[in-house]
Amino acid sequence: MPDEKVKNVFVMGLDEANLPTLRQVPGARSLRFHQLLTIEELQIGEVHLPTLIEKARSVLDAFEGSIDAIVGYWDFPVSTLVPILSRQYGTRSTSLESVVKCEHKYWSRLEQQKVTDRHPRFDRVDLAAEPPRPPENVGFPMWVKPALSYSSELAFGVRDEQEFRTAVTEIREGIARIGRPFEDILERIGLPPEMEGIGGQVCLAEESMSGVQVAVEGYVHQGEVTVYGVLDSINYPDSPCFLRHQYPSTLPQPVIAQLHDVSERVMRQIGMDSATFSIEYFYDPRTQQISLLEINPRHSQSHAELFQYVDGVPNHHCMVRLALGEDPRMPHREGPYAMAAKWYHRWFTDGVVRRVPGPEDIARIEREIPGVRVDVVPEEGSRLSELPQQDSYSYELAHIFTGGANEEELREKYDHCVAALGLAFDEAPRE
């Protein structure tokens, strides 16, 4: 007989959007999910890691039941707090070093190039130089970004020296918010010679990649790398901002096989185990080449509903099972829909939100359009430019999840949702 004892799973930054999907994982009846710090505590303002660790420990130490798992599906600091706390409380997790090798984009590139050439040319930018200059071995167009950031924050596509200097000016002003606290993490692990003295406030230049963006999701269990899904990421026209993530990918099978191969080699090199990952790539149909953009040491909570719609189980399942030391295998194509998408309803100018739909309005939309879930991002009265965790080019108004038989049905449901939401705001120029 299986053990039906209730197990307590502490989720760093547990939020209302993900709680319903967590409760859909197989075996959820015998699990209790507990919030371990709020999103606001973890991601607003400059992170102070010792304070966050003490706050988390006070919650865990006061808990009277068993602490069976500590998990998270957000970037730094959550990704690094999970292995730190797991080690202290005897729960299962990958090593802190393996997480840092993914989160620190410069170190990650150094590790990637040991096992594959499927990545762009890259190098560090000297932020102290005046005027700042791009690295000699990286050509325009390029992306300039901190080695550590949230959701493409302070990442800029630049086409010439003037745009490069403008981007570096903005990065200089904001890089410390995440880079400075990350230096506390770097002091906790042994660094190889090539990372000595690099630190957390590092700016990276990488040649721009072209083609179709694609995401690979997988996990490592007992040293074996498994890829369980490949998704297409489609941008707004003439923009670097995501319009939607779509599952499953429509790429040719030989390309999918390449993605599997490179992902497995890179994750073995990173040394991850007992954890999920998500790797972003570009695929250029003209050259039929793939190029690795970045590695995330966590699965994407953005994709949870997509896997649930198509495979029958949200990808949170893998994270939870790995943390409990159990089989994380995902079902395949057992969901109600052949395809699914997460849409990003965005606005590209600043403004003040005048009207947002209430919970009853959203519930009505979800009832009237089967296979749909809606999360509205801003609150009434908020200014778009003051919303946290936005990219450098747009503001997210709503996340809309759709399941359907084909792309046409996915788009129709999205269009109906956007019309039904009735979002309204007063436009205002950026300050």
Percent of sequence in beta strands: 25-35%
Number of helices: 13
Secondary-structure content class: alpha+beta
Which quaternary structure do these chains form? single chain
Approximately how much helix is present in the residues? 25-40%
- Amino- and carboxy-terminal Cα gap: 63 Å
Overall average residue pLDDT: 93
Main sheet record: 8 strands, antiparallel
Strand order of the largest sheet: 12-11-8-9-10-13-16-15
Unreliable segments of 5+ consecutive residues: none
Shape: globular
Topology:
Blueprint (H helix, E strand, L loop, with lengths): L6 E6 L6 H4 L8 E6 L2 H5 L5 H14 L6 E4 L5 H12 L6 H8 L1 H8 L9 E4 L16 E5 L9 E3 L2 H14 L1 H11 L16 E5 L4 E10 L2 E12 L6 E6 L5 H18 L4 E10 L4 E8 L7 H8 L4 H8 L15 E9 L3 E5 L3 H10 L3 E5 L18 E10 L2 H15 L2 E4 L4
Parallel strand pairs: 1-2, 1-3
Antiparallel strand pairs: 4-7, 5-6, 5-7, 8-9, 8-11, 9-10, 10-13, 11-12, 13-16, 14-17, 15-16
Helix pairs in contact: 4-5, 5-6
Overview of this protein structure:
It is a single chain. The protein is an alpha+beta fold and 431 residues long. The chain is built from 13 helices and 17 strands. The chain has helices at 19-22, 39-43, 49-62, 78-89, 96-103, 105-112, 161-174, 176-186, 253-270, 304-311, 316-323, 359-368, 407-421; strands spanning 7-12, 31-36, 69-72, 122-125, 142-146, 156-158, 203-207, 212-221, 224-235, 242-247, 275-284, 289-296, 339-347, 351-355, 372-376, 395-404, 424-427. The strands form 4 sheets. It has an 8-stranded antiparallel β-sheet with strand order 12-11-8-9-10-13-16-15, with helices on both faces. Strands 4-7-5-6 form a 4-stranded antiparallel β-sheet, sandwiched between helices. Strand 8 and strand 9 form a beta hairpin. The longest helix is centred in the middle third of the chain and has 18 residues, at 253-270. The chain is globular. The N and C termini lie far apart (63 Å).
